[in-house]
Design goal:
By secondary structure, the protein is mainly alpha-helical. It is 66% helix and 3% strand.
Length: 232
């Protein structure tokens, strides 16, 4: 009798646990998805205020240099990737060409960048940093890095990597939503289709040894206005 009772009890507990566990897993999955969704909304809500705050902080640090936050971004892009055309810079910064060209013009007036021949396209000049421009951007980054090390010591390398991965994924998905550019997997590796979708890609291509970057100078009146900076 004890054996029968134990068998019945075991069977009842087993079947009950299986049912509860299955339902619990489904509820947990739904709950986790909802929580992740709300957290993603929180990330998105913070992006624009964060960007504006970073621009204001950068402008304050740049006081006396004659540079704007956008021009600082331009110089750092050239430092990181080497000479590029204006269209290439605009695409990498996800901006229109006009403000990028104005930043290039003013940086050239300050002696921080110069135009250079583009081996890949005679009519599309490269923009590269001068020695002075390299020294300026390295000095700015050194000051910024010292401040980050002082104020953000509570963030681990792993947390920063995770933040980068999340931001990259959000950027990827929102680009698809913004321009309808989601490509079926079977087409994503087809260079002919990619070139057809981006006819200027071949024109702007530069050998990896040279890098990529923008063109010529103008006037101080062409510097970006306040309304343009938040788009940086």
């Amino acid at each position: 009798m004890n054996g029968d009772a134990e068998g019945d009890l075991g069977g009842d507990m087993g079947s009950g646990m299986e049912g509860d566990t299955g339902g619990g897993i489904d509820r947990d999955i739904d709950g986790d998805a909802a929580a992740a969704e709300e957290l993603l909304y929180d990330v998105i809500r913070r992006l624009r205020p964060l960007h504006r705050t970073i621009v204001r902080a950068t402008e304050r640090e740049l006081e006396g240099t004659g540079l704007t936050a956008g021009e600082r971004t331009l110089l750092d892009a050239l430092r990181a990737h080497g000479p590029r055309t204006v269209p290439q810079l605009a695409r990498s910064l996800d901006l229109d060409r006009q403000p990028v060209q104005r930043w290039v013009n003013h940086a050239a007036e300050l002696g921080l960048v110069v135009t250079a021949p583009n081996p890949a396209h005679r009519r599309s000049s490269l923009i590269r940093l001068t020695d002075e421009g390299t020294a300026v951007v390295h000095g700015i980054r050194a000051a910024e890095a010292a401040e980050l090390r002082r104020s953000l010591t509570d963030l681990s390398t792993g947390e920063v990597r995770t933040a980068l991965r999340v931001l990259d994924r959000l950027g990827e998905e929102f680009r698809h939503l913004a321009d309808g550019s989601r490509v079926p997997p079977e087409e994503s590796g087809n260079p002919e289709k990619r070139d057809a979708a981006h006819p200027d890609a071949a024109q702007d291509a530069i050998s990896p040894a040279i890098g990529h970057r923008p063109p010529a100078p103008a006037r101080p009146t062409d510097r970006p206005t306040r309304t343009e900076r938040p788009a940086e």
